[in-house]
Amino acid sequence: MPPVDPRRFVPTAERPVRAKVRVLEPDTEIQPHSHPWAQVAMAASGVARITAGQATYLVPGGRAVWIPPGVEHVVSVVERAELRTLYVHLEGGVPWTQCRVVEVSPLLRELVLQMDIEMDGRSTLTPAQLARERLLADLALDELKRAAPVRLGIELPQDRRLRTLCEAVLAEPSRHATLQGWAAEAGASERTIARLFRQELGTTFAAWRQQVLLAKALALAARKRPMAHIAAELGYASASAFTAMVRRSVGQPPRRFFNTG
Predict the structure, then answer these.
(1) All domains of the chain in start order, with CATH
(2) For 36-117, where are the E strands, in sequence order?
(3) E strand or H helix at 141, and its extent?
(4) What is the pLDDT confidence band of residue 2, given thresholds at 50, 70 and 90?
(5) What is the CA radius of gyration of the chain?
(6) Which terminal residue of the chain has fewer beta carbons within 10 Å of its beta carbon, N or C?
(7) What is d(CA 53, CA 150) in angstroms, rounded to the nearest whole number?
């Protein structure tokens, strides 16, 4: 699916934040594209996967992805999603130069919803509407700058063989619990795949797969799945073992980290 004509939503110095909403069906993919402005992508419902730069992100409700200007990105829908997007002018004052995942506070969520309802796609506004849009935009940008970063984001390699393996893990991370199983499926030696992970991503397979599991768990939690079910689906022998992994990874218990709003 091609991206919606972005000229309808171009942010300007006069209107520094523009909002749009799209309801996307499962398996929809928006083709690679980029903008000269920054973007905030938030799933009001459902789960979307956003690949930007050299990383991919699973985005359920309660989280958003910041994409700086000029960064090519692809949106893939994991389950039917209502995707809310803010386009941010260069003068918006958000200092981040790299993609990041942030928490969406109740206030930020409501501001995004209000901007969609009030202003979405309108090329002309009355002076009163323009003033209201600017107030909403200023507060949304201030709230965005205060948003806590979330340690999510899965680095992706350039090497074609390793990229294929990584995409398979992303699709079904619990199919194999060890690198040996994944390497055999890829038709390569375990030593070769381990070396490629170090060279391409600067990490081990186990550490990389752990980030995949966290992202997958976050998506499952957004569907209100019980923690024990999430642990079992991701291949953990017990909920306590899964809880220990989450605490080691993000320094928070699962119920706090997976609070998806």
Answers:
(1) 6-150 (2.60.120.10), 158-257 (1.10.10.60)
(2) 38-52, 55-59, 63-67, 73-88, 100-103
(3) helix 127-146
(4) low
(5) 19
(6) N
(7) 17
